[in-house]
Amino acid sequence: METLLALLFGLLLAAACYMLLARSLPRVILGLMLLGNAANLSIIAAGRVAGTAPPLVERGAQALAAGGSNPLPQALVLTAIVISFALTAFVMVLAWATWRAEGTLDPETLRRAEPPALPSTDKEAAAEAEARP
Amino acid sequence: MLALPAIPLLALACVPLVGWGLRRAPVMAPWLAALPAALFLLVLTTPDGAMFSLHWIPTLGVELAFRLDGLSRLFALLIAGIGAGVFLYAAAYLEGHPLLHRFLAVLTLFMAAMLGAVLADDLLLLFAFWELTSLASFMLIGFDAHRAEARRAAQQGLMVTVAGGLAMLAGLLLLGDAAGTFRISAILAQGSTLAAHPAAPWIVVLIAIGCFAKSAQWPLHFWLPNAMAAPSPVSAYLHSATMVKLGVYLLARLNPAFEALALWQGLLIGVGTATMLAGAVLALRERDLKRKLAWSTVVALGTLVALIGIEDPLAATAAVVFLLVHALYKASLFLIAGIVDKKAGTRDAMQLRGLGRRMPITAAAALLAGLSMAGAPGFIGAFAKDLLFTVQLGVPRLLPAVALLVNAAMVVVAGVVAARPFMGKPMETGGVAKDPAVALLVAPIVLATLGLVFGMAPHLISAAIIEPAAGAILGRPTGIALGEKQGGTVVMTMSFAALGLGLLMFLGWRRLQPTLAGQTWLDTYGPDAGYGRAMRAVSAVAVALTRRVQGGSLRGYLAANLALVFAGAALVLVARGGLALPLPGPWAGPAQLALAAVILAGALAACRLRALFGQVMAAALVGFGVGILFLTLGAADLAFTQFTVEILAIVLLVAILARLPFHAPDARRAPERRRDALLAAGVGAAGTAILLAVLSVPFDPFITEWMGKAAVPEAKGRNVVNVIIVDFRALDTLGEIAVLLIAALAATVLLRRTGKPG
C-alpha cells in the first residue's frame, strides 16, 4: 500500500512540476493544487498504513485500539489542506490582479521588477530601463 | 611590563573618546597632539627586549603578544613622533571643518593600528593591525568624499593593499605552519632553518606580494600618487612617513629568517630597483607638488626594499638611516606643500614662483628639508647618500648606474619642491600668500631641523636607534656607527656626479618636464590604466553573470531550483547508497488501485489537455480521487475537508477564470514542453525514491500510541484526529487559522486595489 502511495506521490509531483513551469498563470495555480495533493499523500505514506479503521476511541474504551489508521499524519494533513487552500485562493486573486495590472498571464513577460536591460554597466541604459513602465 | 601593550591599546581606546569629545569641543583639537607625544616618551623609556603576551584566541593559537626591539622602536618613535607634529598641524589645517572630529578620530585609529603592527610579536595580530591601517587609509584618502577623484583613490588604495594583504595572510599562515608558531620572536630564533623549508618559496613570494602592495612597489606603485587626494597631513603621515613603510618593516623583520634564500634577495633587489627607476622617471614628469613628492616616496620605498635584499651590515645600516632621513624630510615637505597649496591656491610646480619673500619661514623650513633630501653635506641626508652609494657600488652591474640616475632625480625633486616655488619673481596669483599660523609651522620646522641636528651630531641616535635597528634587520650586530666616513674617492665622485647631474636637470626641468609628459604611452599602458580596465572588466563579468543567473525569468528560476533538488537527491541516493525499498506491509485493495488509476488519469489529463477548463476539471478529478483515497485509508475527517476545499477552490477558480482570457493557451513551445516534462519526471522519480527510502526505515509508533492513550483521559475526546487538532497541537491550528485570515485579508486588499471585479 505504501509503495503505491509513493508511486502516486512521484507521479503527482511530476505533474505538478510540469504545470508549475507552464507559461500561463492559471496553469501554474493548478500545478500548485496538484503539488498540495502530492505533499499530503507523502505525509500519509510516511505515517504508514497499519490499518483502515478510523482513529476513533470506541465507546467504553480508554485508548485507541491497535491496528487502526495513524491519527497524527491525518491531523497534520488536515492543517495542510486548509493552508494550501488559503495559498491557492490568494494566488488566484494575485493572478487576476496581475492580469488587470499588466495585461498578461505569461510569467515570462512579467519583467517589471527585473527589466531585460538590467543589470547594465552603462549607467544611462540602466536608468532608462528602471524608468520604463 | 604593562607599558608595552599600553602603547597601542591606549591609543586604540582613545579613538571613540576623540570622536566624541572633539565633536563637542573642537577647540580642544590641538591638545590631542599630547597623546602621541606621551606615547613617544613611553616608547623611548621602554627597555629593549620588553615582551608581553596574553592568550587572545587560544583555540587558534593567536596571542596578544607584543615585543619591543631596535627595529620596532625606530618605527614606533617615528609613528608617535611624527604623529605628534602631524596631529598639531592637522588641527590647524582643518580648523573649522565640520568633520574635524571624525578626521582626528580616524587618524588616532591609524596611529594605534600602526603602533600595534610594529610592536606585535604575533603574525596574526600583526596582520589584524596591518589591515586596520589599510581601512584607516581608505577613510582618510576618501575624507573629501564629495570628490569623485578622492573616492576612486580611496577605493584603489584599499583594493591594492587589501588584495596584497590577502596574499600575505596566506603567506603568514604558511609561515606559522612551517615554523610551528606564530610568535615572531620564536620564528626569528629558529635562524635560517626556515629558508630550507620546502614551503619557503611560497612563503616568501606571498608575503612579499603583501609588502610590495603596501609599500607601493612596482608594478603596484600606482595607488600611492592617487592617494594624494587626501588632505596634506594624511599624505605626510600615512603616505610618506609611516604606513607605506609597513611593508618595508615586515620585510626587514623577516629578513633574518629568509636572507639566505636567493629568491628573497633577487625578488627584493629586482623589484626594489624597478620601483626606483619607475618612480624616478615619473617624479621628473610630474608637475603637481604632492604627486611629485609621492613619486619620490615610491623611489625611496624601492631603495629601502632593495637595501633589505642586499645582505650586508652596511646595507642594513643604510636602510635604517635612509628610512629615518626620508621620514623626516618627506613628512616636512608634504606639510610645507600643504601650506603652499593653502596659501598660494595651487600645487602646480610650473606656476609656483617667488613665494620666498612673502613666506620666509616656510621657505627656510623647505630649504632645510630639501637640502637633507638632496644629501647636502652637514645634513643627515648626506650620511644616507654616502651609505647608499657605498652599498650600491658593492653590487655590480645595474645598481650603480641606477643609483646615479635616481639620486640625480631626487636632487631635481628637492629643487622643484623645496626651492623653485620660493625663488624668482613673485607670481601674480600668489599676492595674498603669507606665512601661516605657528601651529602649521611647528611640525615642518622641527622635522626639517632634526635632519640638520642629527647630521651635525650623529652620536645622538647612532648607538640608541640606528645600530639596534640595523642589527634587527641583519639578525646580528652590525658594528657600524653612524657618522663613520663611508666609502672612498669613488663614492665621493659619484656623490658629486649625482649632485651635478641633478642640478643640470633641475635647471632644464622647465623643458624636460613637457617632453616627459608628452610620453602619453606611459599613462595609456601604465598600471593605473590597467587597474581601471580590470575594475571595468570585473563590472562587466558581474553584469554578464547576473544576467545569466538572475535573468528575470520565473521559469528559469523554478527550473534551476527543481534541477538542483533533483540532482542533489539523485547524488545522495545513488552515490551514497540511499536507494531502498519499503518494508513489506499490507497490499493495496482493488478499490485503492482503481482510485490510483483515476488520480493518474486526472494528473495526465491536467498536463496533456489544451483547454483550460478541461485542465481544471482534470485537476478537480485528482483532488476528489485523493479525497476518496483518504476515505478508504480510514481518514474520514480528511476526506470531508478535502471535498469541501476542492469544491470551494474549483468554484473560486472558475469565478476568476471567467474574468480572465481563459482561452489563452500555455505559451510553451514544443521543445520547452519536452524539456519541462523531462525535468518534472526527474523530480517525480527523485521524490518517489526519497519516500521509498523513508519507508524502508522501521516505524516508531511512540507518539501515535501516546496520543491514542491520552485522548480520552486527558482531552476527553474520542475522535483522536480532532483531539490532536484542537488540543495536542492547538498552536498549529492557531497558526493555520492565522494563515487563512492573512490570505483572506491580502486577497481582499488586492481585490480592492484593482477595483470592482468585472
What does this structure look like?
The complex is a heterodimer of chains A (133) and B (758). Chain A is an all-alpha fold and 133 residues long. Chain A has a domain of 89 residues. In chain A, 62% of the residues lie in helices and 0% in strands. In chain A, helix 1 packs antiparallel against helix 2 and helix 2 packs antiparallel against helix 3. The longest helix of chain A is centred in the middle third of the chain and has 32 residues. Among the domains of chain B are: 245 residues, no CATH class; 122 residues, no CATH class; 58 residues, no CATH class. Chain B is 73% helix and 1% strand. Chain B is built from 31 helices and four strands. In chain B, a hairpin with a 4-residue loop joins strand 2 and strand 3. In chain B, helix 3 packs across helix 19. The mean pLDDT of chain B is 87.
Short account of what is shown:
The complex is a heterodimer of chains A (about 130) and B (about 750). Chain A is mainly alpha-helical and about 130 residues long.
Tell me the layout of helices and strands.
The complex is a heterodimer of chains A (133) and B (758).
Chain A: H1 2-20, H2 25-46, H3 71-102, H4 123-131
Chain B: H1 3-24, H2 34-45, E1 51-52, E2 55-57, E3 62-63, E4 66-67, H3 70-93, H4 100-119, H5 123-141, H6 148-179, H7 184-189, H8 200-214, H9 223-226, H10 232-241, H11 246-258, H12 262-285, H13 289-309, H14 313-344, H15 360-374, H16 380-394, H17 398-419, H18 438-456, H19 459-474, H20 489-507, H21 509-517, H22 521-524, H23 527-549, H24 554-575, H25 590-608, H26 612-632, H27 636-657, H28 670-695, H29 702-715, H30 720-728, H31 730-753
Antiparallel strand pairs in B: 1-4, 2-3
Helix pairs in contact in B: 1-2, 1-4, 2-3, 3-4, 3-10, 3-14, 3-18, 3-19, 4-5, 5-6, 6-8, 8-11, 8-12, 10-14, 11-13, 12-13, 12-17, 12-21, 13-14, 13-17, 14-15, 14-16, 14-18, 14-19, 15-17, 15-18, 16-17, 16-18, 16-20, 17-20, 24-28, 25-26, 26-27, 29-30, 30-31
